[in-house]
């Protein structure tokens, strides 16, 4: 998901499955996948003997009427909501047009983290911290969402000590937006650390991609 | 009244109040601790349950002969592993101790979901992979069960949160969750290398750039390139910034414009070929005056001037006082979405304040594009008639596994919502659906 997000990142992309939008009333003359499914089901249960050809013809109509009579449904030869449900087919959902989601919440969260972690660092260092979060989302060793990465226990000092729960600075918001838009000064770094502060030997062993301000960025 | 009693009385009262307050605080702290412990316990228990199910389902795949049945099993496994990974990453364990386990779970999830798309019985390679994964899952189950016993009998306490944050990890792991997970980590090291076509396959984790054209350049040459790229700006100083040695090696430059010492322009230039990888101008931006259309024209003119040819603006988005315009490369009239450039325009005067070509540099090359087997009309028939389909054009799109596929892109409408539907130009398979979202803060237009 995120790889595609990067590539089409200006369109806040959202997958939808076309299952939900397909369901509709079938009647004499209908064609398509739904009719195939209908005929297959009717045939399976012995209501229908004709060909499974995706065309709602006389034989299909007869089978539907037979099915409805047998199952106490309204006998109208139409495959609507009730009949669909009885047949175990997808039922049309009331489709409400959605104004969509935006990445605004992610932007704010990322900006909060940047504020907490890299206030006082050069602008580029702030973009780099944002990029590290996004690189982690794309890596299997880390959670798959921005919130998951940020709130992973012990991952960021600013989260552990509550520093990040303040309104983000305007610079950090800018930096977060640049990172979300694809600017990554670190070229894929997954970690950063302040060499004056950390004693962790493991992190020192990681290959360093670049140094900005007080932070070393590593993969 | 006798005044001598007043002070001891006040002190006494204060002591009692403090005492009550202290007990209350202590109770609260205990309550939070127990709450946390319960949360972590539940997560751990869930984790164990998921891993057990993964192991069982993987073993079923090994003995099942029917592709349909396998499909079900694989979709179960992917769901379970996804949840397991999520739970694992919420436990208070350092990343170092769990990153291999986490990676294992994410890869199992992804591998399984890629297998659900296959409708053929497993071949011998796939069987071997599944067997390998099953063995690792079995080992992991065993370890987690052992851990669970230690948690239930109180040998390990999970409520004891690690004090150090960040990467300051426990020095000598004793009997704590972290230490125990470090041991699992070592055992997870030898699970099979996964080569399959999902986004987390091992061979995809280190993206390799296409061969960059050109010779190695010196820093002085990079300076000239940067100067030319920035344009006629009065430059006070060019400083050496941070070189990067990630997927592509670059020189980092910091350009200080005249009279504006505090907001440098950052430029990153590849050491091979001297291509501009990205640029960011951090100047303050005044009141927005440009329209969307003007913004796009400025961006387009900029690219043309810098010598990027065959770039087509695809999407643009305004956020705050800047806008970003996306450009995709076109070859023989086909839009090549993997080759993407981004231009950021300041909305006060139309100056270009950002440029990003990192993905472009990683993926751009001359492609051999065959004639598609289907015509646009034939491809259109594969779209559900519920959609109001308006526009079709050929586009090369990247899939999750970073391969590229030639498709017809159809702009379609369903009631008030707009979608882009990508139909494989050879097989008619629906490769992807994207929803176009226009929101209040960033207007997304074509």
TrEMBL record, chain B:
- Pfam name, any one: YPEB_N
Q: Known InterPro entries for this protein?
A: PepSY (IPR025711), YpeB_N (IPR048402), YpeB_PepSY1-2 (IPR014239)
Q: List residues of the PepSY domain.
A: 374-429
Q: Sporulation protein YpeB PepSY1 and PepSY2 domain: from which residue to which, for each copy?
A: 178-369
The Sporulation protein YpeB N-terminal domain sits at: 28-160
GO terms, biological process:
spore germination
Q: What is this protein called?
A: Sporulation protein YpeB
């Amino acid at each position: 998901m995120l790889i595609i997000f990067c590539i089409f990142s200006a369109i806040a992309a959202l997958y939808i499955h076309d299952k939900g939008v397909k369901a509709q009333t079938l009647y004499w003359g209908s064609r398509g996948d739904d009719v195939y499914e209908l005929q297959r089901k009717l045939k399976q249960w012995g209501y229908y003997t004709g060909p499974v050809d995706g065309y709602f013809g006389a034989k299909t109509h007869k089978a539907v009427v037979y099915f409805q009579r047998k199952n106490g449904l309204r006998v109208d030869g139409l495959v609507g909501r009730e009949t669909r449900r009885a047949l175990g087919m997808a039922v049309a959902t009331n489709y409400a047009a959605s104004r969509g989601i935006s990445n605004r919440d992610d932007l704010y969260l990322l900006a909060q983290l940047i504020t907490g972690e890299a206030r006082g660092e050069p602008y580029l260092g702030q973009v780099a911290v944002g990029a590290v979060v996004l690189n982690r989302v794309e890596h299997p060793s880390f959670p798959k969402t921005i919130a998951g990465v940020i709130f992973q226990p012990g991952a960021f000092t600013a989260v552990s000590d509550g520093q990040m729960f303040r309104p983000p600075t305007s610079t950090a918001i800018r930096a977060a937006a640049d990172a979300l838009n694809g600017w990554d000064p670190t070229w894929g770094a997954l970690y950063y650390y302040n060499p004056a502060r950390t004693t962790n030997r493991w992190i020192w062993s990681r290959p360093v991609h670049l140094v900005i301000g007080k932070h070393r960025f590593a993969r | 009244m006798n005044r001598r009693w007043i002070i001891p009385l006040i002190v006494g009262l204060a002591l009692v109040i403090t005492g009550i307050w202290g007990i209350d605080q202590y109770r609260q702290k205990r309550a939070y601790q127990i709450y946390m412990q319960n949360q972590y316990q539940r997560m751990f228990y869930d984790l164990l349950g998921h891993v057990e199910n993964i192991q069982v389902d993987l073993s079923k795949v090994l003995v099942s002969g029917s592709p349909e049945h396998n499909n079900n099993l694989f979709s179960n496994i992917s769901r379970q592993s996804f949840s397991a990974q999520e739970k694992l990453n919420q436990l208070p364990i350092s990343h170092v101790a769990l990153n291999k386990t986490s990676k294992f779970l994410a890869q199992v999830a992804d591998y399984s979901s890629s297998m659900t798309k296959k409708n053929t019985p497993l071949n011998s390679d796939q069987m071997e992979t599944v067997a390998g994964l099953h063995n690792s899952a079995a080992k992991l189950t065993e370890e987690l069960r052992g851990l669970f016993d230690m948690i239930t009998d109180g040998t390990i306490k999970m409520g004891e949160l690690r004090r150090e944050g960040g990467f300051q990890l426990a020095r000598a792991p004793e009997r704590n969750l972290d230490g125990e997970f470090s041991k699992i980590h070592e055992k997870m090291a030898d699970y099979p290398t996964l080569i399959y076509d999902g986004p987390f396959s091992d061979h995809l984790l280190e993206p390799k750039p296409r061969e960059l054209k050109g010779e190695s350049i010196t820093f002085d040459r990079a300076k000239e390139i940067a100067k030319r790229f920035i344009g006629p700006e009065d430059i006070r100083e060019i400083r050496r910034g941070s070189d990067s040695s990630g997927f592509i090696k670059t020189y980092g430059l910091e350009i200080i414009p005249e009279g504006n010492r505090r907001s440098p322009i950052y430029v990153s230039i590849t050491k091979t070929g001297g291509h501009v990888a990205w640029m960011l101008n951090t100047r303050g931006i005044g009141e927005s005056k440009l329209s969307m259309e003007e913004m796009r024209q400025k961006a387009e003119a900029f690219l043309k001037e810098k010598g990027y040819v065959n770039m087509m603006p695809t999407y643009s988005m305004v956020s705050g006082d800047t806008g970003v315009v996306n450009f995709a490369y076109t070859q023989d009239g086909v839009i090549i979405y993997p080759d993407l450039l981004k231009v950021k325009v300041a909305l006060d005067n139309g100056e270009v304040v950002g440029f990003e070509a990192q993905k472009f540099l990683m993926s751009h090359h001359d492609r051999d594009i065959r004639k598609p087997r289907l015509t646009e009309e034939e491809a259109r028939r594969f779209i559900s008639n519920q959609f109001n389909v308006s526009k079709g054009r050929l586009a090369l799109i990247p899939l999750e596994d970073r391969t590229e596929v030639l498709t017809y892109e159809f702009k379609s409408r369903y009631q008030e919502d707009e979608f882009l539907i990508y139909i494989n130009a050879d097989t008619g398979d629906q490769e992807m659906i994207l929803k176009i979202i226009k929101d209040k803060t960033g207007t997304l237009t074509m």
